[in-house]
Amino acid sequence: MSKEYNVCVVGIGAVGAEMIRLLKKRKFPVKSLTILARSERVEEIDGEPYQVKVAEPDAFEGMDIAFFAGTEGSKGASQTLGWEAVKRGCIVIDNGDDFRMDDRVPLVIPEINPEALDNHPGFIASPNCSTIIALMPLAALHKKAGLRRVIASTYQAVSGTGSAAVVELEDQIRAWVAGQPLVNEVYPKQIAFNLIPQIGSEKEPGFPSEEIKMQRETHKILGDDSIRICSTCVRVPVFNSHSVSINAEFKEPMSPEEARDILSKAPGVKVVDDLAHGHFPTPIETSGREDVSVGRIRKDPALDNGLAMFVSGDNIWKGAALNTIQIAEELIKRG
Amino acid sequence: MSKEYNVCVVGIGAVGAEMIRLLKKRKFPVKSLTILARSERVEEIDGEPYQVKVAEPDAFEGMDIAFFAGTEGSKGASQTLGWEAVKRGCIVIDNGDDFRMDDRVPLVIPEINPEALDNHPGFIASPNCSTIIALMPLAALHKKAGLRRVIASTYQAVSGTGSAAVVELEDQIRAWVAGQPLVNEVYPKQIAFNLIPQIGSEKEPGFPSEEIKMQRETHKILGDDSIRICSTCVRVPVFNSHSVSINAEFKEPMSPEEARDILSKAPGVKVVDDLAHGHFPTPIETSGREDVSVGRIRKDPALDNGLAMFVSGDNIWKGAALNTIQIAEELIKRG
Predict the structure, then answer these.
(1) What are the structural domains of chain A?
(2) Quick one: average pLDDT of A149-176?
(3) Is B242 a residue of the active site?
(4) B7: part of which helix (H) or strand (E)?
(5) Half-sphere exposure of B205 (CA within 13 A, CB side)
(6) Is 0.95 topped by the overall pTM?
(7) What is the pLDDT of residue A28?
(8) How many Cβ contacts (< 8 angstroms) between chains A and B?
(9) Of A115, A199, B230, B329, which sits with the fewest C-beta atoms within 10 Å of its C-beta?
């Protein structure tokens, strides 16, 4: 690879726009930046106009790295164009979920399993947002004490569904203040002042797709299918940053103090944990931060060698756009 | 006891007002209704004026039943006046948390442990709101298969904190729409579009009081201290109805179908569980309902004989006011 890269971003929704912002913020070595989407147009990001070209196979000619923004739920452009880009010598880093469980494709969180990049086929997948946020602290503890079980309940922000969902929550809030009826189109029910305990359609009996993703992707990333995982994924009326209440059982004993020590040294993790002084992670405070915050760390009386904790992180950044860019940075580092 | 009763309600905040509404709604045999609070005044409920008298020991002379509305967090009037009322021949039913763990005082959910009323000292406590809502389905399953572990993460409405918290969320929402700064006084952080994973002050290292209540009160109500319980209690920007994501391990195997069958016959419990058609409990839909809804019932792959489920119920009704009135109704029934 050369020292500067022809980069393209495919898709320009909530995640695509943040990819563009983060490439700039992190001073990614960009030679040229091309934006691809379904239709040709000009899009403005932070007051700057970007020419959007049509995403088609030949658009990847001469490209070094393509970041596919993907979309949770609907099939991403990576399904039709991903391998076409690879064929043309471009490395694809896909935020979407089409190829995460594909045996050929590494599923990578750079702080956790960078070695999975050793033999990539030109196509690398970035995990599900809730999975990344939960694993940032869990993987560091797993390395030390070995995870046996994980029970997680999520509190997921509307930005994870996409820009239309953010607008839906905003509109419902405005309608509530104006005393007008609250309309829902993106979500099956009102999200303002409500909870929706189903994320994705039913994938296995009783389990929506998001909960299956957290289970399978964790197994793949940690390389250990024996970890017993159950998650309940719930949409909450929060704009940005997913939070996860986690109960974890380890093979070896681990005290809260030891866990705090390990986590305070884990890259990309910030310990925010002082209950007596009201310090714990909240989505408002983790939104727009690169690291994932963890707090409420305590002994879990319901599990052997158990720890309970509360985690929060920006689902559009570390849960999506940032992780894809960190994957590219790791690839460059590894040469 | 006679066929009609001299009833008083002590405290007239969110819970006290609902006690008055529910006494009427459920046609409780009221001979006279007296409202007691800190100061003498007239309060209007649903357009009807109520004379509020000063709560003092002699105010309980001639009373048959006193419902103490209590307040989560601050010490309730039951602490100073409860036993004074009992001394005067009045039965006290206390929604507050001052005497719940007192060995003399039964802690009762009428559908679950009515037998605890057999030998009461004139003073009966109603449990914590999250505990009641989680136990309504859990106790029915426990009876059949024996609970071994409970891991719960809550999604608690602001009404549980009291009327001032409801106003705080409303005010923050209005400020957000008006583009003005969001002010917080009741909560330590902004609650609109946010989560606060600490309910109550630190009671034991790492555990706020709400989480300890869920543990100890469950042990007392089910009469089984061996059940291993861990809860994480989180305040969410929802006006009313608490929800709980529960993972439970039983001594005996229980299939989701069997659990649904048991729960559909459990008094006060409503099964709302059809993922394929988007049927699950939500706080908007359980607010203002007397029963507690349960759905998302599925096998928990992380626990042996495990079930996961999502529960939602009106914290001011079944979680507080309604349960106290049901306790009185049960006392009358038992004669």
Answers:
(1) 5-127+320-334 (3.40.50.720), 131-314 (3.30.360.10)
(2) 97
(3) yes
(4) strand B5-10
(5) 7
(6) yes
(7) 98
(8) 177
(9) A115
